[in-house]
Automatic annotation (TrEMBL):
Transmembrane segments: none annotated. Residues 10-135 form the VOC domain. It holds the Pfam family Glyoxalase. It comes from Glycomyces luteolus. This is VOC family protein.
Amino acid sequence: MSKVKPIPDEYPRVTPYLHVQGAAEAIEFYKTVFSAGERGRMPGRDGKIGHAELEIGGSMIMLSDEDPDMEAYAPGHFGGSPVSLHVYVEDVDAVFAAALAAGAKSLSEVADQFYGDRTGTFEDPWGHKWHVSSHVEDVPPAEMEKRAAAQMQG
């Protein structure tokens, strides 16, 4: 009998689990915006999604419809979410535009950042905040320190 691995090979160590109102629509949004692949879904109550898994690049998110009986609440239940997700993408401008076209709200437009990324932030239609970035410049530590100080001074 082989020993079961405590961390399955096909799962990363940290996996965000998102609860939304409208998981089926959220899955389609993530497929459109991030080219997410759906690993599977399990039905929940009343035709809702009890659990789903999506791959985004080499990462994964799990999600479900909100279910108060399971204490699984969407961000709207709390007036928003204090948690945000960061995703590196090949073309941040294209991904950001796709998110807005699919119904996301811009929180900060895509712009070059002092630390070498081109980044934008949006809120998806279910209240989750996403930072999307493409790395555009390798910034040496001394230069990073200078740029950070300049950024703090305005």
